[in-house]
Specification:
single chain, alpha/beta, Alpha-Beta Plaits, five-stranded mixed beta sheet, elongated
């Protein structure tokens, strides 16, 4: 067994690896933070572009739906004009099918249907519609859809049809072009009047006030402040909420 020299000094060597490990960990964290900043700078424009694209697509789809609704309403109005014109003429020997079509058309689009007796009289030719019914003149008196304000009614569900009809009556009486209500709102809680240009804020307030006087409360709301100047100017949406 080796003998230990009591007079020989004992040397202790301290390993500096712990300090190097700490330095290495700090360097790694710094690198990770730098990489994260780079990725964030790259991803942010992509996220903005995707969100903007989704918003634009949604707006285009909504505009397409409204355009389709406008064309459909014009077509329905033409059907009613033709039907009224047929029933304003005396009955002839071979127009029974045509008169039946006209009666069915009026009943289809009318809120109040013709009574059974009136239907029978119109079918037989015993009665005709009065010539004073002039739908062409009524259409000419409607506000221009190209230059006037447009109001679209948006419902949450079919149970709001009576409220939508009340909105239509009030705004039509005030000279606005009001389009048939559509079901395209999801989770709309409170009724609001949407507008899209800052210059339309005063008119939106006037519309809201006209509705309020008839017991219909809607809060004006500007949908976006970044839309191009003139985009959807004087276009309004009455969005009926679930809880109002």
């Amino acid at each position: 067994m080796a003998q230990v020299d009591a007079d020989r000094p004992i040397q202790v060597y301290l390993h500096s690896g712990d300090h190097k490990g700490s330095d290495n960990r700090g360097g790694v964290l710094a690198n990770v933070e730098q990489i994260a900043r780079i990725l964030a700078a790259i991803a942010l424009p992509v996220v903005i572009a995707v969100v903007g694209s989704c918003y634009t697509t949604q707006q285009h789809n909504a505009d397409a739906l409204r355009t389709t609704a406008e064309h459909t309403e014009e077509l329905h109005r033409d059907y009613v004009k033709i039907a009224v014109g047929i029933l304003q003429e005396p009955k002839s020997q071979d127009d029974a099918d045509l008169r039946n079509w006209a009666i069915d058309t009026l009943n289809h689009y009318a809120e109040v249907h013709l009574q059974k007796k009136a239907v029978t009289q119109l079918q037989s030719g015993e009665s005709i519609l009065p010539a004073s019914i002039n739908l062409s003149a009524a259409s000419a008196q409607r506000p221009s859809t190209s230059n006037g304000a447009r109001v679209y009614i948006l419902m949450t569900d079919q149970n709001q049809e009576q409220r939508a009809a009340a909105v239509n009556r009030v705004l039509s009486a005030n000279g606005y072009s009001v389009y048939s209500p559509t079901l395209d709102i999801e989770n709309q809680q409170h009724s609001e009047l949407r507008f899209f240009q800052p210059d339309d804020a005063a008119e939106a307030a006037q519309i809201a006030n006209a509705l309020k006087q008839q017991g219909i409360v809607v809060a004006p709301r500007q949908m976006s402040s970044v839309l191009p100047k003139g985009f959807r100017a004087r276009h309004f949406e009455v969005a009926l909420g679930k809880t109002d």
